[in-house]
Amino acid sequence: MPRTLSPAVAAAGLIGGYAVARWTGKRPLGGVVLGAAGVVAAREWQRVGGRGAAVGLSAAYVAAFGGSHPLAKKVGAWPAVFSVAGGMAAVSWAVTRERG
User: pTM of the entire structure?
Assistant: First the structure.
């Protein structure tokens, strides 16, 4: 997987997980989407940045998911999801981009 895809995978996991949960009415199914994307992204983060990057970015991914809930109470569900997904993509890109 090219390095440029891990930010997109992380963002897609957050957006897709919420979309699946909302449109199917089955939160566990949304969790499967969220988790699967997280695993794919984490494998790439470890390949590119090592264990520390993978652990840190995985923690940020979980924090983004958790942070979207209180944010949704203030700005609405979709704006919150898109905000945390964009933030996660930016952090992932910053850590995994090619140097030099």
Answer: 0.91
